[in-house]
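Re: the 406-residue chain
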Amino acid sequence: MMGADLSTGQRVARARRRIGWDQAQLAAAVDRSVSWVSKIETGRLPLDRMSVVGQLAEVLGVEVIELTGQPYRHDSAELDSGHAAIPGLRLALQQATMPGGAALIAAADSLALPELTVRVEAAERLRQDAKFTALGDVLPQILRDLIVLCDVADGDDMPKAEALMLRSSHMARVSSNLLGHHDLGWSAVQRELVAAERAESPVLQAAARWDLCGVWLHEGELGAARDMARLALDDLEPHVSTADQSVRALWGAMHLRAAVAWSRLWDRSEAESHLAEARQVAAGLPGDGNVFQTQFNAVNTEIHSVEVSLELGHPRDVLSRADLVDVMRIASGERQSHFWVCTAAGQMMNGKAALAADAILRADAVAPQHVRNRPIARNLVDDLRSTDRHSHSAEIRRLAGQMKLG
């Protein structure tokens, strides 16, 4: 069987056999029973939390993507979620991160800052709606134009151009990580850090560090994500008392990154402490806040609380917290979809297959390109396909087919 055809559990078994372990040795390494390992490897128990996937990857000495099987490819351009743009995106980021990269781009004239600002804002709307195919159609050219603009901008235009480069590189990072090209996500965030340094802006530095935490969370580098969140919070703290809402929003968003990192490290006290800090900040900021694409606002803070409970393995808390989220108040299809995926996982952990199926189908209806590229969502659909304890069997089988799950 080729690697692309393996389930997540089968990939776990392959990685275990490669290092010469039996199931008892893996069970001891992750403090689980042999029965648990057997159920994971045979697909009788879904891997429904990234904290567990990350732990398995760490003890087996592999990258997370070896267990998840990313990147996934689909049968149509629309469902393929921007994969066709990856070569162009990779080249643009290579040019953006190399010295003198602007000289490699054939451009008669650099575009004006206002025109590129409009194009970046339009691309950000696609990113929030999780329309990654459409985003992939425009993002490589935006990056190339920004490479040229950042090379020639001076005076007050220079930090503005670098801020646009940071925002565009963030979109490249999100797309790359979602699609499973984590090395490309790292290249994107490197350019963000350079933009912050060139602009000499604490705000841009915080935005870049927030995104760097995101890269490490996707890669399963939880200690690195936690430590970066700590450093960023320490550096931001002297500026939080200012009237600048961007600083306070990034402070809150960094607390949410820290909460997720700590939850995946299974430290409830630290995770809940950071959530509480984020709630306090969100209460004093606009309900539709989206500073540097963080979607930091009260609704997204509560969506994170659902995710934290899921990663900590507290399914009842997942559902009680989900009941309090007015998810339609957040203007982001990606965030809405993420909420429904976490809710579906919580319902499944509670043994409520029908409600889990309903939630995952809601997630797919809102942002299919987001759902069909997420390992946890795919594992849930695969698990739901194997049970008839719900009335959505036909829809789930159809979705599993579109995801190419066997």
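The first helix runs from residue 8 to 18.
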